[in-house]
Amino acid sequence: MAQTIRPAGSRHPAGRPATGSLFATDGKPHRVQDVLMVVTGVLGVLAFVTAMFHHLHLISSWAGLIGILTGLYGQYISKTTWERFGLIMGIGASAVGFYLGMAHGGLFGGVIT
């Protein structure tokens, strides 16, 4: 909230210049968080797309479940707003794919009788 209110020319209390952007980064690399964000996004897209096909419910439900779990862990260790934004988008797509996959047959539908 403070990033959107603070004028772009003001200084950060630690002496760093304020960026005035919602997606401000701290200027440090966060490789683990970035990898988790990408993995969550890929799993989310996979789960969302395969959920549109009834016979692919195993892929959509498992990809959605793993995407939700990796996204939640990524949220736990995330450092910047950009990482949190990407993770939330991936978690949302994973959740939609997971729920539709569960509705179409679930995690073990047809495999275990």
TrEMBL record:
Superkingdom per UniProt: Bacteria
Residues covered by region (Disordered): 1-20
Keyword Transmembrane found: yes
Regions that span the bilayer: 35-53, 59-78, 85-112
Keywords: Membrane, Transmembrane, Transmembrane helix
Official protein name in the record: Integral membrane protein
Organism: Streptomyces globisporus
